Amino acid sequence: MNGESTITVDELFSKLQARKCGLVVESAKVSQLMSEKKSYEVQVMSQVVAAVTNSCDSSHIIDLGGGQGYLSTILALQHGKKTLSLDYNQVNTHGAAVRSKKLEKLWMRTQNRQTSHASVEHHGKNWKRKSKAPVVSIKDEELVVCKDKCKQITHFVTPDSDISSILSQAYPQDSLHNVCIMGLHTCGDLSGTALRLFTKSSLQCLVQVGCCYHLLEEEFIRSPFWKDVDQSLYEHGYGFPLSEHLRSRKFFLGRNVRMSGTQSPERVIDLKQTQTLPLFYRALLEKYLRSKITINDEEPKVVGRLATKCSNFVEYVHRAVDKLKLDLEVDDEEVTRLFDSHQREYEYLQIYYFLKTALAPVIEALIVLDRVLYLREQGFSESYVVQIFDPLISPRCYAVVSLKPTPPSPLFIPREDSDKKVT
Prior knowledge:
It holds the Pfam family Methyltransf_32. Residues 37-218 form the Methyltransferase domain. It comes from Diaphorina citri. This is Methyltransferase-like protein 25 isoform X3. The protein is of the alpha/beta class. It folds into two domains: 6-112 and 139-259 and 360-403, Vaccinia Virus protein VP39 (Rossmann fold), CATH 3.40.50.150; 268-354, no CATH class. The chain has helices at residues 9-18, 36-56, 70-79, 90-119, 144-148, 163-170, 190-200, 230-236, 244-247, 255-260, 265-271, 277-290, 313-323, 332-340, 343-377, and strands at 6-7, 60-64, 82-87, 150-154, 180-187, 205-211, 383-387, 398-403. Strand 5 (180-187), helix 7 and strand 6 (205-211) form a beta-alpha-beta unit. The chain is globular, with a radius of gyration of 25 Å.
Protein backbone atom coordinates (compact mmCIF):
# COMPACT_ATOMS: atom_id res chain seq x y z
CA MET A 1 0.00 0.00 0.00
CA ASN A 2 1.41 3.36 -1.03
CA GLY A 3 1.33 6.22 1.46
CA GLU A 4 0.25 6.31 5.10
CA SER A 5 -2.67 4.13 6.03
CA THR A 6 -2.80 4.49 9.82
CA ILE A 7 -2.97 7.95 11.39
CA THR A 8 -3.85 9.48 14.75
CA VAL A 9 -6.92 11.59 15.48
CA ASP A 10 -4.75 14.72 15.62
CA GLU A 11 -3.28 13.88 12.21
CA LEU A 12 -6.79 13.36 10.85
CA PHE A 13 -7.89 16.75 12.16
CA SER A 14 -4.82 18.35 10.57
CA LYS A 15 -5.76 16.83 7.22
CA LEU A 16 -9.31 18.06 7.63
CA GLN A 17 -8.07 21.55 8.43
CA ALA A 18 -6.13 21.47 5.17
CA ARG A 19 -9.47 20.87 3.46
CA LYS A 20 -10.76 24.08 5.08
CA CYS A 21 -12.64 22.38 7.86
CA GLY A 22 -14.36 24.79 10.23
CA LEU A 23 -13.67 24.82 13.94
CA VAL A 24 -15.22 21.76 15.56
CA VAL A 25 -16.67 22.27 19.01
CA GLU A 26 -15.80 19.43 21.35
CA SER A 27 -18.84 17.25 21.89
CA ALA A 28 -20.46 17.38 25.30
CA LYS A 29 -20.65 14.20 27.31
CA VAL A 30 -24.20 13.06 28.01
CA SER A 31 -24.05 10.55 30.85
CA GLN A 32 -27.79 10.16 31.34
CA LEU A 33 -29.91 7.72 29.30
CA MET A 34 -26.85 5.70 28.22
CA SER A 35 -24.02 3.72 29.77
CA GLU A 36 -20.66 5.28 30.57
CA LYS A 37 -19.08 3.38 27.67
CA LYS A 38 -21.74 4.42 25.18
CA SER A 39 -21.62 8.02 26.40
CA TYR A 40 -17.86 8.12 25.80
CA GLU A 41 -18.17 6.56 22.34
CA VAL A 42 -20.91 8.96 21.26
CA GLN A 43 -18.95 11.94 22.54
CA VAL A 44 -15.79 11.04 20.60
CA MET A 45 -17.46 9.71 17.45
CA SER A 46 -19.75 12.72 17.09
CA GLN A 47 -16.78 15.09 17.19
CA VAL A 48 -14.91 13.09 14.52
CA VAL A 49 -17.97 12.86 12.26
CA ALA A 50 -18.70 16.57 12.71
CA ALA A 51 -15.14 17.43 11.68
CA VAL A 52 -15.26 15.17 8.63
CA THR A 53 -18.64 16.46 7.46
CA ASN A 54 -17.54 20.06 7.97
CA SER A 55 -14.49 19.47 5.80
CA CYS A 56 -16.64 17.94 3.05
CA ASP A 57 -19.49 20.46 3.39
CA SER A 58 -21.94 17.58 3.86
CA SER A 59 -25.60 18.47 3.91
CA HIS A 60 -26.73 15.20 5.49
CA ILE A 61 -25.41 12.12 7.29
CA ILE A 62 -26.60 8.53 6.99
CA ASP A 63 -26.20 6.48 10.17
CA LEU A 64 -26.01 2.89 8.97
CA GLY A 65 -27.23 0.43 11.59
CA GLY A 66 -28.36 3.35 13.73
CA GLY A 67 -29.44 1.12 16.61
CA GLN A 68 -30.42 3.16 19.66
CA GLY A 69 -29.98 6.45 17.82
CA TYR A 70 -27.84 8.28 20.39
CA LEU A 71 -25.10 9.27 17.95
CA SER A 72 -27.52 10.67 15.38
CA THR A 73 -29.33 12.70 18.02
CA ILE A 74 -26.16 14.23 19.49
CA LEU A 75 -24.95 15.18 16.01
CA ALA A 76 -28.26 16.93 15.43
CA LEU A 77 -28.48 18.62 18.84
CA GLN A 78 -24.91 19.76 19.31
CA HIS A 79 -23.55 20.06 15.79
CA GLY A 80 -26.70 20.90 13.85
CA LYS A 81 -26.31 17.93 11.49
CA LYS A 82 -29.23 16.42 9.61
CA THR A 83 -28.91 12.70 10.22
CA LEU A 84 -30.95 9.80 8.86
CA SER A 85 -30.67 6.61 10.88
CA LEU A 86 -31.18 3.40 8.87
CA ASP A 87 -31.82 0.10 10.66
CA TYR A 88 -33.46 -3.06 9.34
CA ASN A 89 -35.09 -3.76 12.72
CA GLN A 90 -38.43 -2.00 13.25
CA VAL A 91 -38.07 -2.29 17.03
CA ASN A 92 -34.71 -0.50 16.89
CA THR A 93 -36.14 2.23 14.66
CA HIS A 94 -39.08 2.88 16.98
CA GLY A 95 -36.86 2.77 20.07
CA ALA A 96 -34.39 5.21 18.51
CA ALA A 97 -37.20 7.70 17.82
CA VAL A 98 -38.36 7.49 21.44
CA ARG A 99 -34.82 7.88 22.81
CA SER A 100 -34.18 10.79 20.48
CA LYS A 101 -37.10 12.68 22.01
CA LYS A 102 -35.95 11.87 25.55
CA LEU A 103 -32.43 13.00 24.74
CA GLU A 104 -33.63 16.28 23.22
CA LYS A 105 -35.79 17.00 26.28
CA LEU A 106 -32.79 16.33 28.51
CA TRP A 107 -30.67 18.55 26.27
CA MET A 108 -33.19 21.40 26.42
CA ARG A 109 -33.43 21.20 30.22
CA THR A 110 -29.64 21.28 30.46
CA GLN A 111 -29.49 24.34 28.22
CA ASN A 112 -32.24 26.03 30.25
CA ARG A 113 -30.38 25.36 33.51
CA GLN A 114 -27.15 26.75 32.08
CA THR A 115 -28.99 29.89 30.96
CA SER A 116 -30.61 30.19 34.36
CA HIS A 117 -27.29 29.81 36.20
CA ALA A 118 -25.65 32.36 33.94
CA SER A 119 -28.30 34.99 34.68
CA VAL A 120 -28.66 34.47 38.43
CA GLU A 121 -27.67 37.42 40.59
CA HIS A 122 -24.87 37.14 43.16
CA HIS A 123 -25.74 36.62 46.82
CA GLY A 124 -23.82 36.61 50.07
CA LYS A 125 -22.00 33.50 51.24
CA ASN A 126 -24.70 32.70 53.82
CA TRP A 127 -27.58 32.95 51.33
CA LYS A 128 -29.53 29.77 50.68
CA ARG A 129 -32.09 29.04 48.01
CA LYS A 130 -35.48 28.57 49.66
CA SER A 131 -36.88 26.32 46.97
CA LYS A 132 -35.61 24.16 44.17
CA ALA A 133 -35.77 25.42 40.62
CA PRO A 134 -38.95 24.11 38.98
CA VAL A 135 -38.60 21.26 36.50
CA VAL A 136 -39.63 22.63 33.14
CA SER A 137 -42.16 20.49 31.28
CA ILE A 138 -41.26 20.12 27.62
CA LYS A 139 -43.90 18.95 25.16
CA ASP A 140 -43.20 16.84 22.09
CA GLU A 141 -44.35 19.71 19.86
CA GLU A 142 -41.37 21.73 21.07
CA LEU A 143 -38.84 19.13 19.89
CA VAL A 144 -37.88 20.81 16.63
CA VAL A 145 -34.50 19.05 16.32
CA CYS A 146 -36.03 15.57 16.40
CA LYS A 147 -38.69 16.67 13.94
CA ASP A 148 -36.50 18.48 11.41
CA LYS A 149 -32.96 17.12 11.70
CA CYS A 150 -32.82 13.63 13.22
CA LYS A 151 -34.97 10.99 11.50
CA GLN A 152 -35.24 7.20 11.54
CA ILE A 153 -36.24 4.76 8.79
CA THR A 154 -36.52 0.97 8.80
CA HIS A 155 -34.65 -0.24 5.73
CA PHE A 156 -32.52 -3.23 4.78
CA VAL A 157 -29.44 -1.71 3.17
CA THR A 158 -27.49 -3.42 0.39
CA PRO A 159 -24.60 -2.17 -1.77
CA ASP A 160 -27.20 -1.36 -4.44
CA SER A 161 -29.53 0.68 -2.21
CA ASP A 162 -30.63 3.99 -3.74
CA ILE A 163 -29.39 6.31 -1.02
CA SER A 164 -30.38 9.45 -2.92
CA SER A 165 -33.99 8.27 -3.12
CA ILE A 166 -34.11 7.25 0.54
CA LEU A 167 -32.76 10.62 1.66
CA SER A 168 -35.12 12.53 -0.62
CA GLN A 169 -38.09 10.73 0.90
CA ALA A 170 -36.92 11.58 4.42
CA TYR A 171 -36.03 15.21 3.61
CA PRO A 172 -38.29 16.11 0.64
CA GLN A 173 -37.61 19.86 0.84
CA ASP A 174 -33.83 19.69 1.17
CA SER A 175 -30.96 20.10 -1.25
CA LEU A 176 -28.69 17.09 -0.83
CA HIS A 177 -24.96 17.27 -1.43
CA ASN A 178 -21.72 15.64 -0.28
CA VAL A 179 -23.58 13.16 1.93
CA CYS A 180 -21.64 11.29 4.63
CA ILE A 181 -22.21 7.69 5.71
CA MET A 182 -21.21 6.67 9.23
CA GLY A 183 -21.53 3.65 11.47
CA LEU A 184 -20.67 3.19 15.13
CA HIS A 185 -19.84 -0.49 15.67
CA THR A 186 -21.48 -1.74 12.49
CA CYS A 187 -21.88 -5.45 13.03
CA GLY A 188 -20.19 -8.13 10.93
CA ASP A 189 -20.87 -7.93 7.19
CA LEU A 190 -22.64 -4.58 7.50
CA SER A 191 -19.20 -2.96 7.46
CA GLY A 192 -18.50 -4.43 4.03
CA THR A 193 -21.93 -3.34 2.83
CA ALA A 194 -21.21 0.23 3.93
CA LEU A 195 -17.89 0.31 2.08
CA ARG A 196 -19.34 -1.12 -1.12
CA LEU A 197 -22.22 1.34 -0.94
CA PHE A 198 -19.75 4.17 -0.45
CA THR A 199 -17.68 3.22 -3.50
CA LYS A 200 -20.68 2.64 -5.79
CA SER A 201 -22.73 5.72 -4.89
CA SER A 202 -22.38 9.49 -4.74
CA LEU A 203 -21.61 9.50 -1.04
CA GLN A 204 -18.75 11.88 -0.28
CA CYS A 205 -17.22 10.71 3.00
CA LEU A 206 -17.26 7.74 5.35
CA VAL A 207 -16.57 7.25 9.06
CA GLN A 208 -17.05 3.70 10.27
CA VAL A 209 -16.12 1.70 13.34
CA GLY A 210 -16.73 -2.02 12.83
CA CYS A 211 -17.25 -4.81 15.34
CA CYS A 212 -18.29 -8.47 15.68
CA TYR A 213 -15.55 -9.91 13.47
CA HIS A 214 -16.72 -13.40 14.41
CA LEU A 215 -19.96 -12.75 12.49
CA LEU A 216 -18.20 -11.94 9.22
CA GLU A 217 -19.00 -14.28 6.35
CA GLU A 218 -15.84 -15.13 4.43
CA GLU A 219 -15.64 -15.78 0.71
CA PHE A 220 -13.01 -18.51 0.71
CA ILE A 221 -14.09 -20.66 3.63
CA ARG A 222 -17.60 -22.03 4.08
CA SER A 223 -19.51 -21.70 7.31
CA PRO A 224 -21.60 -24.78 8.17
CA PHE A 225 -24.34 -22.50 9.50
CA TRP A 226 -24.90 -20.62 6.21
CA LYS A 227 -25.38 -23.43 3.68
CA ASP A 228 -28.95 -22.51 2.72
CA VAL A 229 -28.25 -18.81 2.18
CA ASP A 230 -24.84 -19.01 0.55
CA GLN A 231 -26.09 -17.76 -2.83
CA SER A 232 -27.84 -14.71 -1.36
CA LEU A 233 -24.69 -13.83 0.57
CA TYR A 234 -22.68 -13.94 -2.63
CA GLU A 235 -25.12 -11.60 -4.35
CA HIS A 236 -24.54 -8.88 -1.75
CA GLY A 237 -20.84 -9.62 -1.29
CA TYR A 238 -18.94 -11.31 1.51
CA GLY A 239 -17.63 -9.48 4.54
CA PHE A 240 -14.02 -10.65 4.16
CA PRO A 241 -11.81 -10.19 2.30
CA LEU A 242 -12.79 -7.00 0.47
CA SER A 243 -9.52 -6.02 -1.17
CA GLU A 244 -8.46 -7.56 -4.47
CA HIS A 245 -5.01 -7.98 -2.93
CA LEU A 246 -6.33 -10.64 -0.53
CA ARG A 247 -9.08 -11.96 -2.80
CA SER A 248 -6.56 -12.78 -5.52
CA ARG A 249 -4.78 -14.97 -2.98
CA LYS A 250 -8.03 -16.61 -1.81
CA PHE A 251 -7.10 -15.52 1.70
CA PHE A 252 -9.21 -16.68 4.64
CA LEU A 253 -9.09 -16.62 8.42
CA GLY A 254 -11.80 -18.92 9.76
CA ARG A 255 -14.21 -18.30 12.60
CA ASN A 256 -11.84 -19.28 15.43
CA VAL A 257 -9.22 -16.82 14.22
CA ARG A 258 -11.81 -14.06 13.84
CA MET A 259 -13.06 -14.81 17.35
CA SER A 260 -9.50 -14.29 18.57
CA GLY A 261 -9.49 -10.91 16.86
CA THR A 262 -12.28 -9.73 19.16
CA GLN A 263 -10.18 -10.16 22.32
CA SER A 264 -8.91 -7.12 24.22
CA PRO A 265 -5.30 -7.32 25.47
CA GLU A 266 -5.70 -3.95 27.20
CA ARG A 267 -8.57 -5.21 29.34
CA VAL A 268 -6.81 -8.47 30.19
CA ILE A 269 -3.76 -6.51 31.34
CA ASP A 270 -5.91 -4.06 33.30
CA LEU A 271 -7.97 -6.77 35.03
CA LYS A 272 -4.88 -8.95 35.57
CA GLN A 273 -6.96 -12.04 34.87
CA THR A 274 -8.41 -14.00 31.97
CA GLN A 275 -12.04 -14.81 31.27
CA THR A 276 -11.30 -18.50 30.82
CA LEU A 277 -13.50 -20.08 33.49
CA PRO A 278 -16.67 -20.02 31.32
CA LEU A 279 -14.67 -21.63 28.48
CA PHE A 280 -13.39 -24.29 30.86
CA TYR A 281 -16.88 -24.99 32.17
CA ARG A 282 -18.30 -25.39 28.65
CA ALA A 283 -15.49 -27.74 27.60
CA LEU A 284 -15.95 -29.92 30.68
CA LEU A 285 -19.72 -29.89 30.20
CA GLU A 286 -19.32 -31.23 26.67
CA LYS A 287 -16.93 -33.94 27.87
CA TYR A 288 -19.40 -34.94 30.58
CA LEU A 289 -22.42 -34.99 28.25
CA ARG A 290 -20.60 -37.00 25.57
CA SER A 291 -19.88 -39.66 28.17
CA LYS A 292 -23.58 -39.89 29.02
CA ILE A 293 -25.58 -39.30 25.85
CA THR A 294 -25.25 -39.26 22.06
CA ILE A 295 -24.74 -35.72 20.75
CA ASN A 296 -25.61 -34.70 17.22
CA ASP A 297 -22.84 -32.32 16.12
CA GLU A 298 -25.10 -30.92 13.37
CA GLU A 299 -27.33 -29.43 16.09
CA PRO A 300 -25.22 -27.11 18.26
CA LYS A 301 -26.12 -27.07 21.94
CA VAL A 302 -26.28 -23.52 23.29
CA VAL A 303 -26.18 -22.84 27.03
CA GLY A 304 -25.32 -19.14 26.89
CA ARG A 305 -23.51 -17.35 29.70
CA LEU A 306 -24.48 -19.63 32.55
CA ALA A 307 -21.03 -19.70 34.14
CA THR A 308 -21.27 -16.14 35.49
CA LYS A 309 -24.54 -17.06 37.22
CA CYS A 310 -23.23 -20.19 38.94
CA SER A 311 -21.19 -20.50 42.12
CA ASN A 312 -19.47 -23.74 41.06
CA PHE A 313 -19.24 -26.32 38.29
CA VAL A 314 -21.81 -28.67 39.80
CA GLU A 315 -24.45 -25.96 39.76
CA TYR A 316 -23.41 -25.10 36.20
CA VAL A 317 -23.97 -28.68 34.99
CA HIS A 318 -27.39 -28.87 36.64
CA ARG A 319 -28.54 -25.59 35.10
CA ALA A 320 -27.13 -26.50 31.68
CA VAL A 321 -28.92 -29.87 31.67
CA ASP A 322 -32.18 -28.13 32.59
CA LYS A 323 -31.72 -25.48 29.91
CA LEU A 324 -30.97 -28.08 27.24
CA LYS A 325 -33.99 -30.11 28.40
CA LEU A 326 -31.96 -33.31 28.66
CA ASP A 327 -33.30 -36.44 30.32
CA LEU A 328 -30.22 -36.98 32.45
CA GLU A 329 -29.67 -37.66 36.15
CA VAL A 330 -26.60 -35.68 37.27
CA ASP A 331 -24.25 -37.32 39.80
CA ASP A 332 -22.74 -34.45 41.82
CA GLU A 333 -19.76 -36.48 43.04
CA GLU A 334 -18.92 -37.63 39.52
CA VAL A 335 -19.11 -34.04 38.25
CA THR A 336 -16.84 -32.85 41.08
CA ARG A 337 -14.25 -35.54 40.30
CA LEU A 338 -14.33 -34.54 36.63
CA PHE A 339 -13.67 -30.93 37.55
CA ASP A 340 -10.83 -31.74 39.97
CA SER A 341 -9.11 -34.11 37.54
CA HIS A 342 -8.75 -31.42 34.85
CA GLN A 343 -7.10 -28.61 36.79
CA ARG A 344 -3.85 -29.01 34.83
CA GLU A 345 -5.82 -28.58 31.59
CA TYR A 346 -7.30 -25.41 33.04
CA GLU A 347 -3.78 -24.01 33.48
CA TYR A 348 -3.00 -24.87 29.86
CA LEU A 349 -6.23 -23.18 28.77
CA GLN A 350 -5.20 -19.96 30.51
CA ILE A 351 -1.83 -19.99 28.74
CA TYR A 352 -3.55 -20.66 25.41
CA TYR A 353 -5.98 -17.80 26.05
CA PHE A 354 -3.08 -15.41 26.70
CA LEU A 355 -1.48 -16.42 23.40
CA LYS A 356 -4.75 -15.86 21.54
CA THR A 357 -5.18 -12.47 23.18
CA ALA A 358 -1.64 -11.46 22.24
CA LEU A 359 -2.44 -12.18 18.58
CA ALA A 360 -5.73 -10.25 18.63
CA PRO A 361 -4.25 -6.90 17.49
CA VAL A 362 -2.61 -8.60 14.49
CA ILE A 363 -5.88 -10.21 13.39
CA GLU A 364 -7.88 -7.03 13.87
CA ALA A 365 -5.28 -5.01 11.97
CA LEU A 366 -5.52 -7.43 9.05
CA ILE A 367 -9.32 -7.09 8.87
CA VAL A 368 -9.35 -3.30 9.20
CA LEU A 369 -6.44 -2.71 6.80
CA ASP A 370 -8.16 -4.94 4.24
CA ARG A 371 -11.03 -2.45 4.29
CA VAL A 372 -8.77 0.55 3.80
CA LEU A 373 -6.88 -1.22 1.02
CA TYR A 374 -10.20 -1.97 -0.70
CA LEU A 375 -11.08 1.74 -0.65
CA ARG A 376 -7.67 2.70 -2.03
CA GLU A 377 -7.98 0.11 -4.77
CA GLN A 378 -11.16 1.91 -5.81
CA GLY A 379 -9.16 5.12 -6.20
CA PHE A 380 -9.91 6.79 -2.86
CA SER A 381 -6.40 7.65 -1.70
CA GLU A 382 -7.56 9.62 1.35
CA SER A 383 -8.63 6.49 3.21
CA TYR A 384 -7.20 5.82 6.65
CA VAL A 385 -7.38 3.76 9.83
CA VAL A 386 -7.74 6.08 12.81
CA GLN A 387 -7.72 5.00 16.45
CA ILE A 388 -10.43 7.23 17.89
CA PHE A 389 -11.26 5.40 21.15
CA ASP A 390 -9.31 4.36 24.22
CA PRO A 391 -9.16 0.55 23.78
CA LEU A 392 -9.50 0.04 27.52
CA ILE A 393 -12.93 1.69 27.38
CA SER A 394 -13.97 0.62 23.88
CA PRO A 395 -11.92 -2.32 22.52
CA ARG A 396 -13.19 -1.90 18.93
CA CYS A 397 -11.42 1.43 18.74
CA TYR A 398 -10.44 1.78 15.07
CA ALA A 399 -12.37 3.89 12.60
CA VAL A 400 -12.08 3.64 8.83
CA VAL A 401 -12.24 7.19 7.45
CA SER A 402 -12.44 7.91 3.73
CA LEU A 403 -12.75 11.23 1.89
CA LYS A 404 -13.52 11.38 -1.80
CA PRO A 405 -12.02 14.24 -3.84
CA THR A 406 -14.12 17.38 -3.52
CA PRO A 407 -16.54 17.46 -6.47
CA PRO A 408 -16.84 20.57 -8.62
CA SER A 409 -20.63 20.59 -8.18
CA PRO A 410 -23.27 19.15 -5.80
CA LEU A 411 -23.47 15.36 -5.81
CA PHE A 412 -27.24 15.46 -5.85
CA ILE A 413 -29.37 17.84 -7.91
CA PRO A 414 -31.28 20.29 -5.65
CA ARG A 415 -35.05 20.11 -5.76
CA GLU A 416 -36.63 22.87 -7.85
CA ASP A 417 -39.44 23.42 -5.34
CA SER A 418 -37.13 24.37 -2.51
CA ASP A 419 -34.79 27.27 -1.88
CA LYS A 420 -33.85 25.95 1.52
CA LYS A 421 -30.13 25.77 2.22
CA VAL A 422 -28.59 23.36 4.70
CA THR A 423 -26.02 24.82 6.99
